[in-house]
Specification:
alpha/beta, about 15% strand, globular
Length: about 325
């Protein structure tokens, strides 16, 4: 090695968060569901592990494709995390959109499931107590400013329908409305890891969508949206004990119990504050892809925060 060209390992601080995550997660093992894509994908020399690590960085740092391209060109820690050398040419912005399309939602779901299995094997998640909730995913063309910009760029034509045909209007309470999708999340209350995530159109209720995220067994703790009959039927079918807060007009309402459940839920509602509410893409499948990537990134940050032991060992 030349004295004028230090190694990437020497340039990155020993306590850098990227280094900590690489010590916990073996990306070559995590990306096994994606290895079938490597043979005929992209430019020679870009391993699928490096490409997926770049997508993780995109959500870690909240970057667009073009911002991610520049980030990898200029940030040594980013190059180190993705396995690029100091002088190696990094991907341009078109690579990332091609990679997302190649991976697809189904393969990403396999990867998310594999990560969940590892968390279970390490005793980091269980089904004893599960937090469930939903949050907004607002269409990127929901605001007038963004719609006007899209029209000027020829993206949207008002004469032939909606920008995103799968997006719908949603409502929370009596005054909060949005156009787009709804993210439904289940999180283990042991360490706060997200165990399941499902994206539906915004008009799908929490009770109706619970079947997509409900665990098997244990106690499921949710807000008043989960005390409806449809949700209770799903919980019974999954052999779960209901920890849903009841509405004030219900005869079975126990205010002390529900006050305790509200306090118990409160720390886990912070999960949604860490996620961007804007949908970056159009279509439910791509919105689900975003939901998985945000959940994976959130879990990675939790692994660092709790000083997790290495996975895949």
């Amino acid at each position: 090695m030349s004295f004028l060209e230090p190694s990437m390992d020497e340039l990155i601080h020993k306590n850098h968060s990227y280094r900590k995550l690489l010590a916990i997660v073996e990306f070559s093992e995590l990306c096994k569901p994606l290895h079938c894509l490597y043979k005929d994908f992209g430019r020679p020399g870009y391993h699928v592990e490096s490409g997926f690590a770049a997508l993780v960085l995109q959500w870690f740092e909240d970057l667009s494709d073009r911002e991610l391209e520049r980030f990898l060109q200029e940030n040594n820690a980013g190059k180190f995390f993705c396995g690029f050398t100091l002088r190696e040419k990094t991907p341009d912005h078109s690579y990332f959109s091609s990679l997302r399309k190649k991976i697809g939602t189904a393969k990403l779901a396999e990867l998310f499931k594999l990560l969940g299995q590892q968390l279970k094997e390490k005793g980091l998640v269980s089904n004893v107590f599960t937090f469930v909730d939903a949050s907004q995913m607002i269409s990127k063309l929901a605001s007038w400013e963004e719609r006007d910009k899209a029209i000027s760029e020829g993206i949207e034509k008002l004469n032939n329908g909606v920008v995103d045909k799968q997006a719908r209007f949603g409502c929370k309470g009596k005054s909060t409305y949005w156009f787009g999708y709804k993210r439904h999340v289940a999180a283990c209350m042991k360490h706060g890891f997200i165990t399941k995530v499902a994206v539906t159109s915004a008009n799908v209720t929490e009770g109706r969508a619970l079947k997509h995220i409900c665990p098997k067994g244990g106690m499921t703790i949710g807000d008043k949206a989960y005390c409806v009959k449809e949700a209770q039927k799903t919980l019974k079918a999954k052999d779960c004990y209901s920890g849903a807060i009841l509405k004030n007009n219900m005869k079975e309402k126990d205010f002390k119990r529900d006050a305790f459940l509200t306090r118990l839920r409160m720390p886990y509602e912070n999960i949604f504050s860490k996620m961007d509410k804007k949908v970056r893409y159009r279509g439910q499948a791509k919105a689900q892809f975003q939901g998985f990537m945000q959940a994976i990134t959130f879990n990675f940050k939790r692994l660092i925060a709790i000083h997790s032991p290495p996975l895949f060992t």
